[in-house]
Amino acid sequence: MAFGWRKKRYLSAVLLSKFTAQMPHPDGSFGSTFAERPLVVFMLGSKSNHPLGAFDPVNLKLAKYFSKMLQELRETAENLGYLGSSAWTSAEGSAANEVMSVMYFQDFEPLHKYAHGPLHIQAVKYWSSVVKDYPMCPYIIETYVVPPSQWDNIYENSRPPASFPVRTAQGDGETEWTSPVVNARKGFSPQYGRENTVKLLERL
């Protein structure tokens, strides 16, 4: 691959262009204004300081709760204003077992509502039952509410960011996931968004 004799498979999901990620309208179209809507960034992380690391039983149970919550968010995305997420692993510690998910929401209120929902409350109750006698599994929460025109992002020769939930083109009330990619090579060009990334997303 390094000499061009074989296909560069690491580039198969990369968009070889300069682009930005914008929030599409409910129908999948884009507006003409950059960062025209508010954005909530929610970061949830955890790390195991147990000798067993990621295989610590408490850490494993918390991970299961977290996986269930992410699945629930995706299944109810439109009602909760959930826009997508990405997962990260820290390289700072020698064990490299600190993980974090960066999640995006349309508004703070749906996020606050979800925090008081049954599944999250169940996870919080479990955490509360073990944290006093079990300090080896910390968690980290950060929430940022960003007003319109106060957020920015730029990507070049990168994988597209997380997809966003929108209404289907058929207008039947169903939800589908679409790319937030907008061409940024010559300023803000929202017409680049949905159609021009379909083939790329099919390869992901």
UniProtKB/TrEMBL annotation:
Domain of life: Eukaryota
InterPro entries the record matches: Dimeric_a/b-barrel, Monooxy_af470
Name used for this protein in its record: Uncharacterized protein
